[in-house]
Amino acid sequence: MEFNFDKEIQDVKDLIDMLLGDVMIPKNVKNILQNIGMIVERESKNVVKLSEAIYGLQDISEDPNLPLNAKSDVWQLLNKLEKVKEHLK
Amino acid sequence: MADDNKKRAVVDKWKKKKAFKLIAPKQFGNQEFGETVSMKPEQMIGRTVKINLSILTNQIRNKNTEAILRVSKVEGSNAQTDFAGFVLKQAFLRRMFRRRTSKIEIVETVITKDARKIRMKYVIVTFGKQEVSKTKLIRKEFSDNVKKLASENSTEKFLELSLNTKELFADSLQKMKKIAPISATEVEKIKVLYK
């Protein structure tokens, strides 16, 4: 399948919005997600900033307070961000 | 006699059946999304198929919705489907309600502009437990608004509207702001009635 940069970024934004709207997700996770959302919004073509976001997400995914359904969403987010980063390299 | 019976039993119905391509409705880009089998094309009309909406629209935000598509006509080996409603996933709904919130469920049948009946069930969740008098007010306001919207729009338009609940309930949410704080609204089930 062909890589579509704009679509991937839009998907990432949608996923983040969905996670932020979920009541079961703890506040500390939401704060980190908000920062990642801002990075994706403003500097989606900056590889260094994207790496920073990916490290933040990896920390989140090990959080024991995160519900399982949200965990799978976080993994999906990670997958998409990694794809975008590889494309920009 | 025994030989005759054996011969009759061999007839394989499966071999008589043909495969037809399922084509998505116009608002989802007329794309092919699956196959179904049938002996005669007429037998397929009225069949319903459930499919995740995120596959049809290619948008990840629709991943908790399952669309119901109904075969409306058959042309050659293509079976054209109509959008006949959708259902939200139970796992997603269950996550919406928590302790110390009021859950208001409304089930009703509305009639659209083109005289089709639609049965829908929607849920409203508030912040904090609300008094019965307030929930009654909310129920009345939302129900009136939905009935009015349905009578103004065609079936297709109304289904599309109900996919985006914030747009569907925009007026009611604005009005109810002063009465009770509402945290979430969601259309749980919606179905076009063909009979």
Write the layout of secondary structure elements.
The complex is a heterodimer of chains A (89) and B (195).
Chain A: H1 5-21, H2 27-42, H3 47-61, H4 68-88
Helix pairs in contact in A: 1-2, 1-4, 2-3, 3-4
Chain B: H1 2-9, H2 13-16, E1 18-23, E2 32-38, E3 48-52, H3 53-57, E4 65-75, E5 78-88, H4 90-96, E6 103-111, E7 117-126, H5 132-152, H6 155-163, H7 165-168, H8 170-176, E8 182-193
Parallel strand pairs in B: 1-5
Antiparallel strand pairs in B: 1-2, 3-4, 4-5, 5-8, 6-7, 7-8
Structural write-up:
Chain A has 89 residues and is mainly α. Chain A has a single domain, classed as de novo design (two linked rop proteins) (Up-down Bundle), CATH 1.20.1440.50. Chain A is built from 4 helices and no strands. In chain A, α1 (5-21) packs antiparallel against α4 (68-88), α2 runs antiparallel to α3 (47-61) and α3 runs antiparallel to α4. In chain B, strands 1, 2, 3, 4, 5, 6, 7 and 8 form an 8-stranded mixed β-sheet that branches. Chain B is 33% helix and 36% strand. Chain B has 195 residues and is an alpha+beta fold. Chain B folds into 2 domains: 13-88, no CATH class; 90-193, Tetrahydropterin Synthase, Chain A (2-Layer Sandwich). Chain B has helices spanning 2-9, 13-16, 53-57, 90-96, 132-152, 155-163, 165-168, 170-176; strands at residues 18-23, 32-38, 48-52, 65-75, 78-88, 103-111, 117-126, 182-193. In chain B, a hairpin with a 5-residue loop joins β6 and β7 (117-126).
Task: Fill in the keyword field for this structure.
heterodimer, A: about 90 residues, de novo design (two linked rop proteins), about 0% strand, B: alpha+beta, 2 domains, 8-stranded mixed beta sheet, 8 helices
